Amino acid sequence: MSGGNPSTKKAFWNDLKLAARVAKRAPVFSAVAIVTIALGVGATTAIFSVVDGVVLKPLPYRDATRLVRISHTAPGSNIDRMGTPDGTFFHYRENASTLAEYALYIESSATTDGDSGATEAGVIQATPSLFSVLGVKPLLGRLFTEEEGQSGAPVVVILTHKFWMSRFGGDSTVIGKPLSERSPIPIVGVLPEWFDFIRPEAFVTFGNSFDDPALIVNLRLDRTRARLGNFMYQAIGRLAPGATAQDANRELIMLMHQMPELYPHPGGFTTRSVQESRLAPVVEPFKNALVGDIAGVLWIIMGAIGLVLLIAMVNVLNLFAVRAESRRREIAVRRALGATGARLSQSFLAESFLLATAGTVLGVMVAASGTGMLLRIAPSNIPRLESSRPGLESAGVCRLDRTGLFAGTRTRAGSPIRTAQSISGGRRWRPGCHERAGTKPGTACNGGRADRLRDDATRGIGTAHENRLRDDATRGIGTAHENVLEPPPRRARFRHG
């Protein structure tokens, strides 16, 4: 026998073309299904993009899971949270075995000159150890040296990449030059483009706080004036290998109680005031301090939107179920032509795949515009919103949705297929069955031309008469002459001479 069943790829491509014709003949059903999928996928993807950018994405630093924020609390003085005194920089850094590195910084602002006039820029004053804590290397020049973090050292500045590009146009010769005519502070380095110093909300703000600091200046601390007081600095540390935030917190509590005797500077805490105020350090993962309580709120919103997506998908499944019930006659005709249950399931799978793909593509566009709208209306105190963009990670949610949709469609399609078997008397037409059963063509199993007609209809090929029959069978209609239980009459054959 020549020919045979076509490859799965070719058969599925034929099913897609048939699915496109079926969708075109039912525009209202197709439009409702596509729009429902698009709204569900778009809303879920938009919210997930925000959750991914704010909560799930790791911080852009080396071994970010080892970063911790150190603050202090004094419940005896009704102070829930405050910053860190300068005395801890020396004591914690030199004696804490659970901290590999420790740094202090404080935010301020400065006026800088430029071609467009004087502008105010955000400034971070930081100890030289800040860059080793974050694991940053300069793009140009160098970072601060340990000597530049001591009292009496000259002031130097490091530029962020954004400020370097906007103010100096990316000039690589700025190293060693003064910042401006009014500010003769020498420029010693430029930070890489990826670097973004993401900070938790400061407890005490001096001057203006900027989302994107432009300059980083060396913070010079005087060891002789250090004390357990003046909680104006922010502290960030890197845990030692194998240490946890809880381990560091227990060790720092012990070390802090030693500070009144080691740093008895006037104006600082005494041993008695430490006990009365119940002053204690608080060590927490840097990402937890950055995100704060907003993570729980975002997960609640994500759960609510996920429920909306589930409802939307159930509605689409119900639409497919109603659609399948209205196509009982079509399924019965196709079943009688020889299509197996698996073949019909593949055809319905192609239809659901086509609609789900169209809905997903439209949903990604909805997500892109929806994410932009969320970023515009979101509160400014939500961290890392700028990293919330719909991408391939969010598209993975759509793939899960499509898989669930297909599975439900195949299950629903099984009911009318079984109904078609009962309509045809429970007989399954198998091409070539007379050869296996030893019967003649045209008998109970309808061999001969009827078998070839069913084979061609199943494979999607045939003569013009058979193509019209196949189209009518797809539409679920047919004449008495084209009844599948009675093959069409043979044409008369004439012999010459």
Provide an overview of this structure.
With 497 residues, the protein is of the alpha+beta class. It has 16 helices and 10 strands. It has helices spanning 8-25, 27-56, 87-95, 129-134, 161-168, 245-256, 259-262, 271-277, 286-291, 294-326, 328-336, 341-377, 392-423, 433-437, 449-459, 464-475, and strands at residues 67-74, 79-82, 99-112, 119-126, 140-141, 157-159, 187-190, 215-218, 234-239, 280-285. Strands 1, 2, 3, 4, 5, 6, 7, 8, 9 and 10 form a 10-stranded mixed beta sheet that branches. It is elongated. The chain starts with 7 loop residues before the first helix and ends in a 22-residue tail after the last helix.
Helix run count? 16
Helix content: 40-55%
Biggest sheet architecture: 10 strands, mixed
State the separation between the terminal residues, measured CA to CA. Answer: 31 Å
Low-confidence sequence ranges: 391-497
Order of helical and strand elements: HHEEHEEHEEHEEEHHHEHHHHHHHH
Radius of gyration: 37 Å
